[in-house]
Amino acid sequence: MVGMSKHTPLAAVFEPEFIAGMKDIFEQRIVFNQMLGLKIVTLQPDRVVARIDMKPELVGHFAYNRVHGGVISAGLDATGALAVMAAIGAKHMDEPPAQRLARFHKLGTIDLRVDYLRPGIGTHFELHAQVLRLGSRVASTRMEFVGPEGQLMSAGSAAYIVS
């Protein structure tokens, strides 16, 4: 995956307070993410990784052992947004963590594309995302939905409004 623009401070290290705040927003306050069981695994300025563990509510009607395409799409969208949040947080490291966390209330998906490459079969999945470009109004991301053995199952791209 391609990294962020040269203007994003990739060397930034997030404070424990910022990471805890991001986990609270992503895993607890966004009820849909909570229902999906999305958990943050890696939170870095230039890449994020989330995880979904399979549970019966996430599978399709006719194929019990497959995760539903809507779950894949929603997970990729949420992880792309998480990557944008991390990039915004890194861009404003001069601000206190609480002030950076308050910047995310205007974030919204403009466009989302998902390519389903393989059936979503497995016990757990990782979702990887990177920001390709963080502009003053729009951010572009690239995401991957990866199976338990590391195989790419779906790929996505999205644009988010950030102003």
Automatic annotation (TrEMBL):
Species: Giesbergeria anulus
Gene Ontology MF annotations: fatty acyl-CoA hydrolase activity
Family: Belongs to the thioesterase PaaI family.
Family annotation (Pfam families): 4HBT (PF03061)
Database matches in NCBIfam families: PRK11688.1, unchar_dom_1
Lineage per the UniProt record: Bacteria, Pseudomonadati, Pseudomonadota, Betaproteobacteria, Burkholderiales
Annotated ranges, domain Thioesterase: 65-152
Keyword Hydrolase carried by entry: yes
Coiled-coil residues: none
Superkingdom: Bacteria
Matching InterPro entries: ACOT13 (IPR039298), HotDog_dom_sf (IPR029069), PAAI_dom (IPR003736), Thioestr_dom (IPR006683)
CDD domains noted in UniProt: PaaI_thioesterase
The protein, known as: Uncharacterized domain 1-containing protein
Residue ranges of the TM segments: none
Keywords of this entry: Hydrolase
